[in-house]
TrEMBL record:
This is 3-phosphoshikimate 1-carboxyvinyltransferase. It catalyses: 3-phosphoshikimate + phosphoenolpyruvate = 5-O-(1-carboxyvinyl)-3-phosphoshikimate + phosphate. Pathway: Metabolic intermediate biosynthesis; chorismate biosynthesis; chorismate from D-erythrose 4-phosphate and phosphoenolpyruvate: step 6/7. Keywords: Amino-acid biosynthesis, Aromatic amino acid biosynthesis, Cytoplasm, Transferase. It is an enzyme of class 2 (transferase). InterPro entries: Enolpyruvate_Tfrase_dom, Enolpyruvate_Tfrase_sf, EPSP_synthase, EPSP_synthase_CS, RNA3'P_cycl/enolpyr_Trfase_a/b. One of its GO terms (biological process) is chorismate biosynthetic process. The gene is aroA. The lineage of its organism: Bacteria, Bacillati, Actinomycetota, Actinomycetes, Micrococcales. Pfam families: EPSP_synthase. Residues 16-426 form the Enolpyruvate transferase domain.
């Protein structure tokens, strides 16, 4: 947590004039934590420039250190920079996953390569997040895992220093992270790994594509030609020398601000080509009435303050849902409801996001209903009130977007945004021309 960031309740600032701001967004959580895992499994030292420094990535670094990896965190030219030196992975260790899906899913296969027991636990709500498919898959590959109840946190992985590997079939309809987890460590398994997804459609596919791409960057051979099947060849993992792209999903709230308040927001360094799911925000904002321009300097979004209703399938980009739902709730003048579909798996995210968004938006006067696989948001005038955040960083971001237009929105436990963006309130205040 940034020592200067507010904690407790935070009155969300309104936007009294159109915005004209440039917002430099820190590095991607998903890329930072993938690179960190691969660096710990690599043959030599890796250098990550501009990694995200937040609760989720700090937990990842802490866990890798507990497993024996050396991580040196420095600031070079005012930017964070990490030197990650792989060592023989070892137990015993106790890993705090916090509420980070990437830590609780990506590290059990890494712990399986350690020599000794590694116990995993996390925040109270983390014990409710789905884990069974990845634990079952590891057991099928010969790994010893004991749980203390259901197949969820807390559990202990007892490695012997090597994993046989081979083919596993699992149902990853609850989270793409089950697949990514096995692929990230799979090159270090004796037979590599073949992962077959069998079940309802896999969510967040761009995140699996991101995993495949970072593995290829590290010299690993991955076959992803067939749908729902991935094969990782056994091999060494090469050291990485990478600069982390800005987190495009974290950029979503700032871009949304331009649409809601009118004016424009620029995000420098927006990649021309990326596997980040957050890139889809360009199309979503366009559909909601913004003007969106991507050029070599970055992304610029301009809006008039009017938000259009939308019917969107967010299956691939579920992490954008809270901010998109806030935008849809501000489409008060639209003559039709908005529908957000394909996101049943959000019930297993940081909190049950469908229930949380319905409850909190309705608490401000919204007319939101939950469907089997998403949300239906009818036009309604919103009013002041407290917006509860359930330990979910993206609930804070959604509430801040609402607060731009609805006076008197108070965001409960604003510090929870530190899961991925500890400097959120500071950046938000600066975007609005005020102190954060
Ligand atoms: O692998 C990743 O970095 C992520 C995958 C997605 O998870 P789900 O597939 O569980 O939605 C995404 O929502 C999460 O924010 C990050
Ligand atoms: C679902 C998310 O995170 P996690 O990596 O904890 O699953 C998210 O950031 O929206």
């Amino acid at each position: 947590m940034d020592p200067h960031s507010p904690t407790g309740d935070w009155p969300a600032p309104t936007a009294d004039t159109p915005i004209d701001a440039t917002v430099a967004v820190p590095g991607s959580k998903s890329l930072t934590n993938r690179y960190a895992v691969l660096a710990a499994l690599a043959t030599d030292a890796s250098r990550l420039t501009r990694p995200l420094v937040s609760r989720d990535t700090t937990l990842m670094v802490g866990a890798l250190r507990d497993l024996g990896t050396q991580v040196t965190q420095e600031n070079v030219d005012d930017e964070p920079s990490w030197l990650i030196e792989p060592q023989q992975l070892r137990g015993p260790a106790g890993i705090d996953c916090g509420l980070a899906g990437t830590v609780m899913r990506f590290l059990p296969p890494v712990a399986a390569l350690a020599d000794g027991p590694v116990r995993f636990d996390g925040d109270p709500h983390a014990r409710k997040r789905p884990m069974a498919p990845v634990l079952g898959a590891l057991r099928a590959l010969g790994v010893d895992i004991t749980t203390e109840g259901a197949d969820a946190l807390p559990f202990t992985v007892t490695g012997t220093g090597a994993v046989r590997g081979g083919k596993v079939v699992l149902d990853a309809s609850g989270s793409s992270q089950f697949v990514s987890a096995l692929l990230l460590a799979g090159a270090r398994f004796e037979q590599g790994v073949t992962v077959v997804h069998d079940g309802k459609p896999l969510p967040s596919l761009p995140h699996v594509q991101m995993t495949v791409e970072v593995l290829r960057d590290a010299g690993v051979v991955v076959d992803d030609m067939d749908a729902n099947t991935w094969h990782v060849e056994p091999s060494e993992i090469s050291a990485l020398e990478v600069s982390v792209e800005p987190d495009l999903s974290n950029a979503a709230a700032f871009l949304a601000a331009a649409l809601v308040a009118g004016g424009r927001v620029r995000v420098p360094g927006w990649p021309q080509v990326t596997t980040q799911a957050g890139d889809t925000m360009r199309d979503i904002l366009d559909a909601m009435g913004a003007e969106v321009v991507l050029d070599r300097d970055g992304l610029t979004v301009s809006g008039t303050g009017e938000v259009s209703a939308v019917d969107l399938d967010l299956h691939d980009v579920g992490e954008l849902t809270p901010v998109v739902a806030a935008l849809a709730a501000l489409a008060a003048l639209a003559d039709s409801p908005s529908q957000l579909r394909g996101i049943a798996h959000l019930r297993g995210h940081e909190t049950d996001r469908l229930a949380a968004l319905r409850t909190e938006l309705n608490g401000l006067g919204g007319r939101v209903t939950e469907t089997d696989d998403g949300l239906r948001i009818e036009p309604a005038a919103l009013h002041a009130g407290t917006f509860h955040t359930y330990g979910d960083h993206r609930m804070v971001m959604a509430a801040a977007v609402l607060g731009l237009r609805v006076p008197g929105v108070v965001i409960e436990d604003v510090a929870t945004v530190g899961k991925t963006l500890p400097t959120f309130t500071e950046l938000w205040g600066r975007m609005l021309g005020r102190q954060g």
